What we know:
By secondary structure, the protein is an alpha+beta fold. It has two domains: 19-173, Regulatory protein AraC (Jelly Rolls, Sandwich), CATH 2.60.120.280; 187-290, Orthogonal Bundle (Arc Repressor Mutant, subunit A), CATH 1.10.10. It is built from eleven helices and nine strands. It has helices at 101-108, 113-121, 129-147, 151-173, 187-202, 209-215, 220-230, 235-253, 258-264, 270-281, 285-290; strands at 28-33, 41-43, 48-55, 57-62, 65-70, 74-78, 83-88, 93-99, 124-125. The strands form two sheets. The chain has a five-stranded antiparallel beta sheet with strand order 1-8-3-6-9. Strands 2-7-4-5 form a four-stranded antiparallel beta sheet. A hairpin with a 2-residue loop joins strand 4 and strand 5. Helix 1 packs across helix 4, helix 3 (129-147) packs antiparallel against helix 4 and helix 5 (187-202) crosses helix 7. The longest helix is centred in the middle third of the chain and has 23 residues, at 151-173.
Amino acid sequence: MKTIVAITADFSHICSEMETHVFRKSEYYQETADPSGMAGTVIHPSECTILFCVSGYALVSVNFVRRVVRRGDIVVVLSDTLLSVDAVSRTFRAKRIEVAANLLDEATFSLSSDFFDRIYDNPIFPTTGEQRTLWEAWYGLNDYCMSIDEYKPAYIMLCNQLQNLFLAMEAATKPAVPTRDIKPVSQTRRLFNSFCRLLVEHGRSQHDVGFYADKLCVTPYYLSKVTFKTLGISPKELVDRHIIVEMKRLLVTTDLSAKEIAELFHFDNTSYMGRYFRRHTGMTPTEFREQ
Length: 291
């Protein structure tokens, strides 16, 4: 992977009175992820999560398509991507980075729409041994950036770091074939991708396939043809899968009561939610949380 020097965007909007503040974790932070609780969870960032697999492997579902994350892979999860961690190996370890909207926008403003389509379709980027070494150096430099006491220099340096990473990934993944030989994304796939984005946005409150069909300006029957052609299952099954995965995440990672979760997902009452959850998982929400 070639070293790329990025030119930053205009940072004049950064308030001067904040220049003496340390960098805020609400905008950027990085850590070594704890793998023990990752299996069965959903990675659903407010803006962007970046994972780097240090060792082992994980089985994930990206927009309901099963994929494998291996040692050295970089995974970029944007807010409109459905990514669930189905299983992890005993040796799985990953470094995790969270990036807020303002920093992400500044770092990615020059990237092509084709690159974002690539991320949405498959957010997993394999690396070579040399690129892994560069990643470790890049990650270490980010620690240094965050240790700087003045806010503005730290912000600009981290933005440059992220921009360099994304530009290098974009350059490394550009096809080596002429543009005329690249097949455009089919209308069916585009419609399916739009359906997944709507699920991310409305999945908790809208459980009816008709809602999504209306938003996509198609009939429920046509939407079912699209999902069957793409994954071999119905749109209702995809809606249910998304709801169950999100409910599991809340049961594992929060102390929300069954009543509060039922309200979040717009179920009429806790009893109905419990029956719905049991029908799809074989256990009650309480049993799932306590297992």
